[in-house]
Specification:
With about 180 residues, this protein is an alpha+beta fold. The chain has two domains: about 5-70, no CATH class; about 75-170, Cation efflux protein, cytoplasmic domain (Alpha-Beta Plaits, 2-Layer Sandwich), CATH 3.30.70. It is built from five helices and five strands. The chain has helices at about 5-25, 30-40, 45-70, 90-105, 135-155; strands spanning about 75-85, 85-90, 110-120, 120-130, 160-170. It has a three-stranded mixed β-sheet, covered by helices on one side. It has a two-stranded antiparallel ribbon with strand order 1-2. Strand 3 and strand 4 form a beta hairpin. Helix 4 packs across helix 5 (about 135-155). The radius of gyration is 29 Å and the shape is elongated.
Length: about 180
């Protein structure tokens, strides 16, 4: 939630707490809140100001209610095939699993974190790797790009536009 909306929600809740406290005080016979309310609405200018504040609070309440009722989207999916019989889709977590299996075929990789984004020309796969420094980075990178692209296109059935690799850390293999 953005900071601005947190501030708006805080102020709205604070005003709601004040109104609720006033209602409770009035219900128990403490007339002071009613006297303050009558004094506040004594002039037409104060009534206009209270009306504007009320309209703003109603709009905020509707926005916050709609935001609170908004459902979280399910896992993002990509359509593989669509025909008269129906549609075949694959989720991004499933694509990441396919990528992990493909990368296991290449020696020298210690850890991988894939990020997948969908573009009009196909998937863009970004691989954050930790590798063994005993292997050639250029050869390993080209091998990973080839294996991942072929495996995702063959198994996942989606077009891969690019496979980008970032080698972040080197760790020697433990013996």
């Amino acid at each position: 939630m953005p900071v601005l909306w947190r501030v708006v929600l805080f102020i709205y809740n604070l005003l709601l707490l004040i109104v609720a406290g006033s209602v409770v005080m009035s219900a128990f016979g403490m007339g002071q809140p009613l006297a303050y309310i009558n004094a506040a609405f004594a002039t037409s200018q104060n009534r206009m100001m209270a009306g504007v504040v009320g309209i703003i609070l109603v709009v905020l309440a509707i926005i916050l209610l709609g935001w609170g009722l908004k459902f979280k989207r399910s896992a993002q999916s990509l359509v593989i095939d669509s025909n008269l019989s129906g549609e075949i889709s694959i989720t991004v977590p499933a694509i990441k699993t396919i990528i992990m299996r493909a990368v296991k075929k290449v020696e020298g990789i210690k850890e991988i974190r894939p990020v997948v984004s969908n573009r009009p020309d196909g998937l863009q796969i970004y691989l954050h790797l930790m590798v063994n420094p005993d292997y050639s980075m250029e050869e390993m990178g080209q091998s990973i790009q080839k294996v991942v692209k072929e495996y995702v296109e063959k198994i996942g059935g989606v077009q891969v536009a690019a496979v980008k690799i970032l080698v972040d850390d080197f760790k020697a293999e433990r013996k």
